[in-house]
């Protein structure tokens, strides 16, 4: 999307490697930015007497202003139209499975930014994404994305190093401003996010991070997380991702806990196919487990989202394998994945198949079919989800 390609949107995606050497062309005083996404989602969850079906259309519209050499601002709103029989979290249909895409209209981003060749900063409501978004992200799969009232800062002292800091004052969650549960709408925070990236060569990346999360509305959600991630490999051939983090209680949290997170993920790519396998461990002790309340949850532990709300008290071991490939055209992509879920303390939770096919329709329209099938074995109930989607980007 154009919003994500625009360099002044600090919180979008950090271009960690490389720095512009040529003076960029002067931007227009104003840019109009928009995208639209039409989606049908159906959910068959054995825990509910009814199936859910939701058809939603999201329109996101933004006006970006540029002035002087370094300054810019973005004002962006979004509206979501919805129809169907489903529980959106705001419409009172509690006899149906939740599809967290409520009908809504609200401010999505509103910030002022300053940018030079090596430093940039933004103040206001903004998209914030760190690393692979496991710990801090925008949950962009949902029609109403997660944004933050924040002060964010980024510095690139050299081609090998990048440093980021964000102070998060409030999180605006995907459930929207009309969610039945006020805590599902937004939370007041006093949270510090820190990230340092070191790229000694193109095929190796080290990322250290700290997330000091102080939830002012729910004290038991406050955690301190410190971690290190390594990515090795580029292009065809072998690649490896490895990560370790430690999480403990923080600020005024009345609980006392200490949990480990680790991931090991080897992969091999040849021609247009990548095979990947891995184990992701979220520690738990039977009473409490490691949590990722500000992350992009749908991208992890299966698309059925059985573990997206919270990690079960027994923790989670996700053993997974996937195939990713192209199908007949450079911009087509298919994904097939399998997950086996087990507790860190306790037995087995279940298993899940995921499959998707994405394809272009013209130059600016992209289609997608997507499926998630979860088979319960001690946790939650059998669930099947199906999505059909078209997305336009300006």
Q: What is the number of helical segments per DSSP (H or I, 4+ residues)?
A: 1
What would you say the CATH architecture is?
A: Beta Barrel
CATH topology tier name: Porin
- Record field, number of beta strands: 18
Question: What sequence of helices (H) and strands (E) makes up the elements?
Answer: HEEEEEEEEEEEEEEEEEE
Radius of gyration: 21 Å
Distance between the termini: 7 Å
Overall shape: globular
Detailed description of the structure:
The protein has 394 residues and is an all-beta fold. It has one domain: Porin. Helices cover 1% and strands 55% of the residues. It contains one helix and 18 strands. The chain has one helix at 2-5; strands at residues 30-45, 52-67, 71-85, 104-115, 119-126, 147-155, 161-172, 186-201, 204-213, 223-232, 237-249, 258-270, 273-282, 316-325, 333-342, 348-361, 365-376, 383-393. The chain has an 18-stranded antiparallel β-barrel. The protein is globular. The chain starts with a helix and ends with a strand. Residues 1-20 form the signal peptide. This is Alginate export family protein. InterPro entries: Alginate_export_dom, Porin_dom_sf.
List key phrases describing it.
signal, 394 residues, globular, Alginate_export_dom, Porin_dom_sf, Porin, 18 strands, Alginate export family protein, mainly beta, 18-stranded antiparallel barrel
Secondary structure layout:
Layout: H1 2-5, E1 30-45, E2 52-67, E3 71-85, E4 104-115, E5 119-126, E6 147-155, E7 161-172, E8 186-201, E9 204-213, E10 223-232, E11 237-249, E12 258-270, E13 273-282, E14 316-325, E15 333-342, E16 348-361, E17 365-376, E18 383-393
Antiparallel strand pairs: 1-2, 1-18, 2-3, 3-4, 4-5, 5-6, 6-7, 7-8, 8-9, 9-10, 10-11, 11-12, 12-13, 13-14, 14-15, 15-16, 16-17, 17-18
Organism: Noviluteimonas lactosilytica
Protein name: Alginate export family protein
Domain Alginate export: 32-164
């Amino acid at each position: 999307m154009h919003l994500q390609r625009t360099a002044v949107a600090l919180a979008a995606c950090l271009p960690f490697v490389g720095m512009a050497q040529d003076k960029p062309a002067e931007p227009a005083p104003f840019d109009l930015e928009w995208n639209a996404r039409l989606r049908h989602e159906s959910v068959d969850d054995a825990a509910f007497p009814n199936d859910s079906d939701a058809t939603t259309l999201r329109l996101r519209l933004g006006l970006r202003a540029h002035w002087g050499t370094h300054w810019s601002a973005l004002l962006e709103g979004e509206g979501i139209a919805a129809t169907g029989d489903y529980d959106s979290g705001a419409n009172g249909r509690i006899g149906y499975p939740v599809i967290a895409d409520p009908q809504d209209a609200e401010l999505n981003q509103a910030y002022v930014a300053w940018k030079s060749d090596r430093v940039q900063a933004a103040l206001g409501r903004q998209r914030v994404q760190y690393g692979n978004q496991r710990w801090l992200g925008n949950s962009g799969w949902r029609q109403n994305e997660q944004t933050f009232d924040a002060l964010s800062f980024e510095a690139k002292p050299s081609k090998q190093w990048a440093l980021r800091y964000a102070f998060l004052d409030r999180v605006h969650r995907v459930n929207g401003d009309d969610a039945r549960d006020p805590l599902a709408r937004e939370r007041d925070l006093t949270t510090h996010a820190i990230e340092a990236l070191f790229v000694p060569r193109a095929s190796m990346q080290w990322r250290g991070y700290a997330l000091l999360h102080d939830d002012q509305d729910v004290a038991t959600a406050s955690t301190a997380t410190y971690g290190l991630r390594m990515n090795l490999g580029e292009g065809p051939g072998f690649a490896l991702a490895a990560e370790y983090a430690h999480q403990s209680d923080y600020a005024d949290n009345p609980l006392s806990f200490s949990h480990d997170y680790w991931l090991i993920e080897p992969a091999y790519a040849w021609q247009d196919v990548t095979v990947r396998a891995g184990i992701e461990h979220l520690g738990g002790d039977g009473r409490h487990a490691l949590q990722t309340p500000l992350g992009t949850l749908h991208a992890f532990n299966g698309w059925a989202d059985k573990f997206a709300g919270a990690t079960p008290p027994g923790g989670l071991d996700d053993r997974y394998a996937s195939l990713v490939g192209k199908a007949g055209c450079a911009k087509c992509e298919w994904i097939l994945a399998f997950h086996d879920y087990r507790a860190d303390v306790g037995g087995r939770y279940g298993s899940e198949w995921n499959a998707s096919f994405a394809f272009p329709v013209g130059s600016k329209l992209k289609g997608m079919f997507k499926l998630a099938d979860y088979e319960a074995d001690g946790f939650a109930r059998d669930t099947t989800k199906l999505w059909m989607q078209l997305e336009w980007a300006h």
